[in-house]
Amino acid sequence: MAINTDFIYSFTEFDKNLGTIMYTYKETNSDKAERIEDKQKIRERFVSVRKFTEELCRSLIAEDYVIQSMPDASPVKWHLAHTTWFFETFILSQHIKNYAFYNYTYKFLFNSYYVQAGERYTRAKRGMLSRPGVEEVYKYRQQINERMINLIKTIDSLKSEEINFLIELGLNHEQQHQELILTDLKHLLSLNPLRLIYSEKKKIAGSGISGINWISFPEGIYETGNRGKEFVFDNETPRHKSFISSFSLADRLITNKEYLDFIEDGGYSRAELWLSDGWNVVENEKWRSPLYWEKVDSEWWTFTLSGFNKIAMDEPICHISLFEADAFARWLGARLPTEEEWEAAAYDKVIKGNFAENGYYQPVPLLENVNGFKQLFGDVWEWTRSSYSPYPGYKTLPGALGEYNGKFMSGQNVLRGGSCVTPVSHIRPTYRNFFPPGARWQFTGLRLAKDEV
Predict the structure, then answer these.
(1) What are the φ/ψ torsions at residue 340 (nearest 5 degrees)?
(2) Quick one: residue 199, left, alpha or beta (phi over 0 = left, psi -120 to 50 = alpha)?
(3) Cα–Cα distance, 308 to 292 (Å, whole number)
(4) pTM of the entire structure?
(5) Are residues 289 and 397 in the same domain?
(6) In the chain, is it the N or the C terminus that has fewer CB atoms within a 10 Å radius of its CB?
(7) Same domain (yes/no): 165, 231
(8) Is there a domain that residue 207 lies in?
(9) What is the percent of the chain with per-residue pLDDT over 90, rounded to a whole number?
């Protein structure tokens, strides 16, 4: 469903606590017919997204839902409840008169970081929440699903654009947590000495890796950001122009084999290749390989959601930090792309690749060795050298929803393209993901760039 994001900034009044946007709108007969059709599309998408979240949990047992493996990860149960809290807090409670919360304590337990929405339970201790139990959380989801579907049925014309936007925001928010469920589960299962399997491995054959081909772009003025034709997060706006010097971008992702060459050439012991903060982490954390890699006798293995497997040399390198990606690029005499360069290469490309719906939950070998860019979308999030910062003229949403993206624009780097655990309907060329430079538990890899002299 396409949503006109101009409405984000055309509000006339709003609830200062939760950011409810109000519009002045007069409905015509054609508008009414379109609204009825939109209701059905919204309902179908709502049901589809919520169902997929629960499908990702189908193979889990109760104990898998409740453990928090590290402060940056959350228990599966918490993800299920928090995404439900989002719909109840930002939509139902704001658009149903005299709304009664399903359980008032959930406002506290399942708020993540929205300070303006109220008090929050300590993030690092979410694994201590043995209650409510898994069954009760699913009841919570079912009840809020029913309330949301009833609300969609009764959306009136005066608030349709407002509610449609908030529903789409909530669904994209849930898709982010679908990805987090898988990344957090992988970290959790990797700590179990039983080498547990989340999903059976699917066999897939690649088309063969060739050398890197470089695709050149001339210097000039390039546009970056939302074109106003689809739903986007506020951090993808406004669309703006910037000057980019001539550059080249690698046609494919870096593979495990290429990264292993870096390791064997002493990459983790050569301080000259590393950013200062990165070198400090390498020394303090004793990094010698990507996260989940382990050398058994003379062979490299890695933990995947399909268990503990030998490393497939032609798969894209994964679970590396910005520091590692940057060091590898320096080792090859290249660099990481800026996010503007990446978007210039991706803006008109068809979105296809290895996404969560494929069920691999692991980067796969190059499937189609065609001319031009490959693996721009899916497989791994691609680190850029760009700091996560606001675009010129950026404005946050009003109220608590303004905390969704804007307040994290410090100390993080932008990633592009999505990964093998990203839902395909969630990604777009303008999508800006962001993580601290030392983060490795996400499905993160790299594509090289270089300056054209």
Answers:
(1) -65, -40
(2) beta
(3) 9
(4) 0.90
(5) yes
(6) C
(7) no
(8) no
(9) 77
**Domain extent for 438:** 214-451
Residues 288 and 182 in one domain: no
Does a structural domain hold residue 202?
no
> Is residue 159 a part of any domain in this protein?
yes
Q: Are residues 259 and 408 in the same domain?
A: yes
CB 412 within 8 A of CB 387: yes
Percentages (nearest 5) of helix, strand, coil residues in the chain: 40, 15, 45
CA 287 to chain centre: 25
Residues 226 and 186 in one domain: no
The bridge status of strand 299-304 relative to strand 307-310 is: antiparallel
pLDDT, tens digit (0-9, with 9 covering 90-100), for 162-178: 888 999 999 999 999 99
Q: Are residues 174 and 225 in the same domain?
A: no
Same domain, yes or no: 222 and 329: yes
Check residue 14 and give its pLDDT.
30
Domain CATH for 131: 1.20.120
CATH number, domain of 287, equals: 3.90.1580.10
The angle formed by the CA atoms of residues 259, 261 and 262, to the nearest 5 degrees, is 65
Q: Domain count for the chain, please give it.
A: 2
Note whether residue 196 is domain-resident.
no
DSSP calls for 126-177: GGG---S-HHHHHHHHHHHHHHHHHHHHT--GGGHHHHHHHHHHHHHHHHHH
Which positions ≥6 away from 66 have C-beta within 8 Å? Answer: 75, 76, 77, 127, 129, 130, 134
H/E element, 86: helix 76-87
Cα dihedral 183, 189, 195, 200 sign: negative
Do 266 and 172 share a structural domain? no
- Closest by CA position to 174, among listed 145, 201, 150, 217: 145
| Better-predicted residue by pLDDT, 129 or 37 | 129
Long-range contacts, stretch 130-137, CB < 8 angstroms, 24+ apart: 130/66, 132/81, 132/103, 132/106, 133/62, 134/62, 134/65, 134/66, 134/77, 137/65, 137/77, 137/80, 137/81, 137/84
Q: What is the mean pLDDT of residues 15-27?
A: 36
CA atoms within 13 A on the CB side of 401: 26
pLDDT mean across residues, the chain? 89
Interval 186-203: pLDDT, tens:
999 999 999 999 999 877
